Amino acid sequence: MDDKNTIRKQVKDTLSQLSKPLYEDYSYKIACRLFEEEEWQKADVIGVTVSKPPEVDTYQIIRKAWETGKTVVVPKCVPKEKKLSFRTLTEFSQLESVFYGLFEPVPTLTTEVSPEQIGLLIVPGLAYTKAGYRIGFGGGYYDRFLTDYTGNTVSLAFKEQMISDFLVEKYDLPVGKIITPNDVIKTV
Ligand SMILES: Nc1nc2c(c(=O)[nH]1)N(C=O)[C@@H](CNc1ccc(C(=O)N[C@@H](CCC(=O)O)C(=O)O)cc1)CN2
Ligand SMILES: Nc1ncnc2c1ncn2[C@@H]1O[C@H](COP(=O)(O)OP(=O)(O)OP(=O)(O)O)[C@@H](O)[C@H]1O
């Protein structure tokens, strides 16, 4: 079994070869599947990251949430404590680039919401197993956040991000569903 860093590198290499048309095709199919899920339809508040390629595109998911009257909240990292603070996003101009080319909400333009208000959390990651365990970018931000988050969780993945196994550590927590272009994988 490979360790997390080896898997991170392999998946990044594979994803870097995905062409723009396929990236768009797969992202659209994943989004359409997500919108069919009950967890999406019944959630009033959606927690989601702002995607950076080659992550599955979330801009179209944010737009759809707005169009259907949902509240969108996006995370701001608190690096000192490795914590996430979710803040409401009502327009893309409320984002700023903070580090690694990731976009975060501008604090003065957005308001914080508490985790209990988030009905559906879309959890980012680089690689996933069928059991719902994930490997992220190594910050441990979501692993920490998920320890006391009790709402629904899903992750979005290209099939190239599905891996057979990795050494699950004590802090790793599974997501409830993984949505790929062709399937919805229930993990529980
Ligand atoms: N689009 C997107 N936004 C996101 C995430 C994501 O996965 N995707 N995150 C998902 O969590 C958070 C940011 N994730 C981060 C992950 C790693 C590091 C970081 O500092 N990495 C160091 C090593 C960290 C360590 O091991 O201590 C590095 O790469 O040098 C920072 C933020 C919130 N926003
Ligand atoms: N709940 C937690 N409490 C304390 N430390 C944690 C917790 N979760 C993860 N960590 C630590 O954070 C570091 C990064 O964890 P890991 O490699 O699993 O991150 P990741 O899953 O890739 O990142 P993310 O959760 O941000 O997507 C590890 O050193 C891990 O031990």
From TrEMBL:
Q: Where does substrate bind?
A: V50, E55
A Pfam family this protein belongs to? 5-FTHF_cyc-lig
What chemistry does it catalyse, as a reaction equation?
(6S)-5-formyl-5,6,7,8-tetrahydrofolate + ATP = (6R)-5,10-methenyltetrahydrofolate + ADP + phosphate
Q: List GO BP terms, alphabetically.
A: folic acid-containing compound biosynthetic process; tetrahydrofolate interconversion
Q: Which residues bind ATP?
A: K4, N5, T6, I7, R8, R134, I135, G136, F137, G138, G139, G140, Y141, Y142
ATP-binding listed as a keyword: yes
Keywords noted in UniProt: ATP-binding, Ligase, Magnesium, Metal-binding, Nucleotide-binding
Q: Which cofactor does it need?
A: Mg(2+)
- Molecular function (GO) terms listed? 5-formyltetrahydrofolate cyclo-ligase activity; ATP binding; metal ion binding
Q: Which InterPro entries does the protein's record reference? A: FTHF_cligase, FTHF_cligase-like_sf, NagB/RpiA_transferase-like
Tell me which family the UniProt entry assigns to this protein: Belongs to the 5-formyltetrahydrofolate cyclo-ligase family.
What name does the UniProt record give this protein? 5-formyltetrahydrofolate cyclo-ligase
Lineage of origin: Bacteria, Bacillati, Bacillota, Bacilli, Bacillales
